[in-house]
Amino acid sequence: MASRKQKLTKEEELLLQDFSRNVSTKSSALFYGNSLIVSAIPLWLFWRIHQMDPYQSGILFAIMTAISTYLVSYAYRNVKFVLKHKVAVKREEAVTREVMKKVADDKKMSKKEKDERILWKKNEVADYEATTFSIFYNNALYLVLIILASFYVLRSLNPNVNYVLSVASASGLLALFSTSTK
Amino acid sequence: MATSTKILALAVLAVLPLLMNASTCIGPQVTSNVYTTSEASMSISTVFVVEVAVKCNNGEKDLLLFADVNGHMVPATQSGTGKFQVSWSDEHKKLPAGTYGVRFFDEEGYNAVRKEKRSGTDGSAVTPIFTVNVKHSGTWTGPYVQTEFVATCVALLVWYMAYRSKSFLMS
Fold this sequence. Notes:
The complex is a heterodimer of chains A (about 180) and B (about 170).
Chain A: H1 10-19, H2 25-48, H3 58-103, H4 111-153, H5 159-178
Helix pairs in contact in A: 1-4, 2-3, 2-4, 3-4, 3-5, 4-5
Chain B: H1 2-19, E1 29-36, E2 46-55, E3 66-69, E4 72-75, E5 77-80, E6 83-90, E7 98-105, H2 107-118, E8 130-136, H3 147-170
């Protein structure tokens, strides 16, 4: 018996997207761009405050920035996924009200179509809010961890060692905390 | 014989002052340049440096100057024709902000001050050839709160606000 490939409905697609940790290309680009900028901030800190020479430590800076970029964007994805559902629940009422206000006069649209539109709008709003909040929250936490590690915990170490350990621990802890579901 | 010896000794004593080359500055015109330590965070003691350029009305050039620095007589180093320099240092708390009068003496004055001190006085009765007032505005010991502490507090505050928002969303 030949299996028939059935086309997924819009609702099923949205549900799959909802429960998947994968992000769209646009979100991915946004995450990597932001994480690169945030991971580059410690470079300025260690160059100007801890007096590290950027030319001598260039390779070290590049490697650690790349590792930090990956871990921070991983944290962004995780926190966004956890937050998205909660945001969707919180915003459901307001989104429904807004969409219904727009399509109330459209007699041609069936109830099913209206529900699909509400679901799509809710998903879009939740996606956007979760993305931006995830970036904000993770950036704030990353900067706190970097400052605490480099100025207090590891202050007596050599600047190169200080840089490697503080960036690694800050981005590592950020990735670890992001795996929490609470 | 004894009488002739006494007469010879008296003659030598009478001539001796004429043989000594005691250089005295009359009517000195003084220009001074003063430096004092302004920052205590990068230095362990406060340093005062006083540079004076002296021009005497009697054209005296071979001066030998001594400075009274906090009750101690120190020789002034000659850094050029008519230019002298005196410097001293001490712990920051022993040289607080204020005006310090540095009295300059020639050889005669120096000897007079020494004589006064030997007799138990502080030598303040001896008139200097000139005095330079050194104004020290004190040393800056750094900010009351370290900048990394301020940065940490601000970062923690921002994170706390983000954490509260996240907790509200997750509830």
